[in-house]
Amino acid sequence: MKHISFLLLLLIASSIVISCKDDDSAGPVKTKAEMLVAHDWIISGATFSINGEGTDAYDTYGDCEKDNFFHFTASNHTYSFYENSKVCTPATGTAGTWALNADGTQLTLTPLNGPAQVRNIIELTATSLKATTNARAFGNFVTITESYKAR
C-alpha cells in the first residue's frame, strides 16, 4: 500500500511540475509593425470584387508581376516595391513611406509620387499578409484583395 501511495504522490507531483513549467519557447509576441518589417512580402494571390461579385485575379497577373515584392523598413518607415528577376515593361517598382494605424488594421502606403493608398489588413502573421483596397471604377465599387507570403 505504501508503494501505491508513493507512486500516486509521485504522479501528482510530476503533473504539477509539468503543468506549471514556464513556456517561453515561442519568444515574445511581435507587434504588427515588427511582423511587417521582419520579411520581404511576395504576392501569392489576388481577387477583384466588383459590386460584390468576386473573381480570382491572380491568374491575370503577368509573370513579371507575380515575383514582385514589398520591403518595409522600421527605422524610417519607408517601403520599396521591387521588381524581382522578371522585370515588367514598363517597370512597376516604386517607393515611399508607410504607416500603421493605432490598432494595426490599416496600412497606409504613400508613394514618392502619387496619393496615399489605404489598405485594410485582414491578416498579418509572421508568414502571411492579406489586405484589401477599395476604389471606384467606372461607377462601380471595387475591392481588391491581395495576399502575400513572407520570403
From TrEMBL:
Residue stretches making up the Lipocalin-like domain: 41-130
InterPro entries: Lipocalin-like
Domain of life assignment: Bacteria
Leader peptide range in chain numbering: 1-19
Keyword Cell membrane: no
Keyword Cell membrane: no
UniProt keyword terms in alphabetical order: Signal
The protein, known as: Lipocalin family protein
Organism: Hymenobacter lutimineralis
